[in-house]
Amino acid sequence: MFGPEGPTLRELTVQALSSVEHGYDLLAPKFDHTPFRTPDAVLDSVAEALAPLGPFTDGLDLCCGTGAGTHLLTGLCRRGVTGVDFSAGMLDVARRRVPAADGPRVAWVRGDARALPFTAAFDLVVSFGAFGHFLPRELPGLFGQVRSVLRPGGRFAFPVFAPPGPAHPGFWTLLGFDAVMRLRNALWRPPFVMYYRTFRLSAVLRELERAGLAVELGVLPGFGRRADGSPRARLVVARRADAAPLGGQPAAGSVNS
Fold first, then answer.
1. Lowest-pLDDT range of 40-49, 144-153, 165-174, 223-232
2. Is 246's pLDDT higher than 70?
3. How big is the CA angle at 138 (ends 136 and 139), to the nearest 5 degrees?
4. Residue ranges per structural domain of the chain
5. What is the b/e burial string over 183-221, where b = at least 16 CB atoms within 10 angstroms of the residue's CB?
6. By the 8 A CB rule, do 64 and 24 touch?
7. Helix, strand or coil for residue 23?
8. CA-closest candidate to residue 100, choices 60, 67, 149
9. Using CA of residue 187, residue 191, residue 192, residue 194, what is the dihedral sign?
10. What is the pLDDT, as a whole number, of residue 49?
11. Class for domain 9-240, per CATH?
12. Cα 109 to Cα 104: distance, rounded to the nearest angstrom
């Protein structure tokens, strides 16, 4: 599953018994050789969908890991790109793997997405594969933080993939993984928050709107459709509205659909 350059079973076990921060510090040197790293096909598809919405001046890669999304932003932003992550190990790898170029300046910041150390300084915030590390009750605070670092009219974008149905083996794999993680966190400290089935699209859209973000939901082409005809991959683009609404249903728009 991980190949010869990826982590061993022992290394993964040690990681899983650590805190999220320390676990990723340990995994960082081999992270890009695991399935956890966002595939290039996803990154390219998101970049293609976002390009017509620009140009952007400054971008933020939220929970940047080893910098795959940060590198994507260097092709979309004119002045500056920042990657933020709370794992020093992941940031060390990112600094080496996202070279400084003639384009926008690149900065790396160690910080917690739930308490971002920025003002309203970004036109575009992206995130890839990080939301399993946040519990549902943390989403309002997380999205509030994102809104606070966006300039008026700025956008927060991330891909969402449809979960497999009960007839697919992947459904039971993810269900089993989450069950094991819940058992591990009940018996072992510190906790390692990583769940695959807590990030439900309907709840996410609702919380984005409550945070004062106007939501558009588009389709990422190239990933096919499920048996019921719904797309396997969508792109959520949430724009900072002038004022935070009290609630209601999010608006479903279209981004590169």
1. 165-174
2. no
3. 70
4. 9-240
5. eeeeeeeeebebbeebbeeeebbbbbbbbbbbbbbbbbe
6. no
7. helix
8. 67
9. positive
10. 96
11. alpha beta
12. 16
